[in-house]
Amino acid sequence: MNGKFEDRIGLDAPRHVFVTGGTGYLGAALIARLLERGHVVKALVRTGSEHKLPHGAQPVIGDALDARTFSAHVAPCDTFVQLVGVAHPAPWKERQFREIDLASVRASAEAAVAARVRHFVYVSVAQPAPVMRAYVRVRAECEARIRASGLSATIVRPWYVVGPGHRWPIVMKPAYWVLERLPTTRAAAIRLGLVSHEQMVTALVWSVENPATGTRILETEAIRDSSMRPRDRSATETP
């Protein structure tokens, strides 16, 4: 982040974090990292999925599309991380984007407001973009819903997260290397560039530990920024 955002909490103060999508591609790794760093985590899961959570996370049984099923369990969390979304997005899935992505954001924002959560973290998608228009459009609506809720929020906008089971775009790295260095294509190539699974988890941990005031957007360049790496919590401890 190159000093653009200040640390707003001491690393000796654990966050109480509520996570939806905690058994997914990013969620399980994020929860494990938060627990390692001493934070307290509740995670929304469907019945029978409790065993998929990292050890130490408190499961909350509910439906991510219906705030009534989990809203009462969000408090006393001060941070809400929204990771629910359609797996493997494709241009023909607009109906699913609305029925799952948009509906889950509505439910999560409602629950977060009711619980007086201080900071909402949402993984959106890079925008504008020349492809995947339905996906981008619905994610933009999700962002608007979060803003309308009045919650302070960090919105993280990757285009494609390369990691386990999601490695095919690596073949495009040479093309990205060229496009990111041409003045006419640099901005778009970076915005729609690749980020690693590790970079995304790191960015999410940073977001949790450095709550925003108002709405903060983290795009690809910020997600890749090594200066975002959370500091060692033990380094702040005093005898």
How would you describe what is shown here?
There is one protein chain. With 239 residues, this protein is α/β, with parallel strands linked by helices. The chain contains seven helices and nine strands, in the order E-H-E-E-E-H-E-H-E-E-H-H-E-H-E-H. It has helices at 27-36, 94-114, 133-149, 173-179, 186-191, 197-209, 220-224; strands at residues 16-20, 40-45, 58-61, 79-82, 119-123, 153-156, 160-162, 194-196, 215-218. The strands form two sheets. Strands 3-2-1-4-5-6-9 form a seven-stranded parallel beta sheet, sandwiched between helices. Strand 1, helix 1 and strand 2 (40-45) form a beta-alpha-beta unit. Helix 1 packs across helix 6 and helix 2 (94-114) runs parallel beside helix 3. Residues 1-10 and 234-239 have low confidence and may be disordered.
Q: Roughly what is the average pLDDT, rounded to an integer?
A: 90
What separation lies between the terminal Cα atoms?
30 Å
Number of helices: 7
Q: What is the percent of helical residues?
A: 25-40%
* Secondary-structure content class: alpha/beta
Strand and helix order: EHEEEHEHEEHHEHEH
**Overall number of strands:** 9
Oligomer: single chain
Low-confidence stretches: 1-10, 234-239
> How would you characterize the largest beta sheet?
7 strands, parallel
If you compute it from the alpha carbons, what radius of gyration comes out, rounded to the nearest whole angstrom? 17 Å
Strand content: 15-25%
Shape: globular
Q: How is the largest sheet built, in terms of strand order? A: 3-2-1-4-5-6-9
